[in-house]
Amino acid sequence: MAVGDSIGPRPMEASRVGTAQLRAELAEEYTTADTITGRFLVVKPLSETPRVLYRASQRDTVWTELDGLLNRYEHGDQQLGVEIRQANLDGQGRPEMLIHFYSAIYGSGGGTTYASDYVIDISSSPPQLLLQANTRYIDEAFPAYAAMHGEPLKAGEAEQGYERSIKLQGRELLVGPIEAIGLNPELGDRKALTQLPAGRYRYQRGQVLRIR
Prior knowledge:
- This protein has 212 residues and is mainly beta.
- It has one domain.
- It has helices at 19-26, 143-148, and strands spanning 6-11, 14-18, 32-36, 40-44, 51-54, 62-66, 79-87, 96-106, 110-121, 128-141, 159-163, 166-169, 172-175, 179-181, 199-204, 207-210.
- The strands form 3 sheets. Strands 1, 7, 8, 9, 10, 11 and 14 form a 7-stranded antiparallel beta sheet that branches. A 5-stranded antiparallel beta sheet has the order 2-6-5-4-3, with helices on one face. The chain has a 4-stranded antiparallel beta sheet with strand order 12-13-15-16, with no helix packed on it.
- It starts with 5 loop residues before the first strand and ends with a strand.
- The model has no long low-confidence stretch (mean pLDDT 83).
C-alpha cells in the first residue's frame, strides 16, 4: 500500500466536545460549519484543516471529534470540500461513515487537486478506522494562461493525473480501479494514490476483507 494508506480496523484518536464549546468556536470570525443529517458536523476555520465531528443522535449535546483525520493537507489549500455518506456495512449498530475529502492548491497557471477517503466505524469508542485511501492526484493547467504565454494546450492536456473511487453500496465497500486522466500523465504520480487492489470489500466479524 502507498504511504498513508491503511486497512483496519484500527483505533482512532478522538475527543469529546460540548455544544457550548462548539458554539463559542463557531462564533469566531471566518469560521463556518456544515451540518449533515443532524449528526455530523464539518467545521471549517479560515486557512485551517477542516474538523469532523459526530454525535449518536440529534438530541445529544456532546460531540465526538475525529482528531487529526485530515492533517495530511497543507493549511494553505485554497479549496476544501468534505462529503459524508453512511451505510451499515456489518449489519450491526450504527451505520459506518465514508468521509470524502477534496483539496486543491492553485497558482497563476494552474494547480493540483487531491482527494482522500476514510471509512470509519463510529459505533464503538474509540471509533475504528476501517480504510484510508488517497484517491485523486491531478495536475490542472489553465488553457487561457498557457495560450497567453504562447504554449496552447492540446486536447487532454488541461488535466493530467490519476483518480479512483471509493463507494459504499449496501453491505459492501467498493474500491474502483486507478484511472489515468489526460493525454500523458506522469507515471510517478500514480504512486500518490492508494495501491489497494480494486474490488469488493466487506466489514464482518471485526475485519475488512476483500471478497473479489
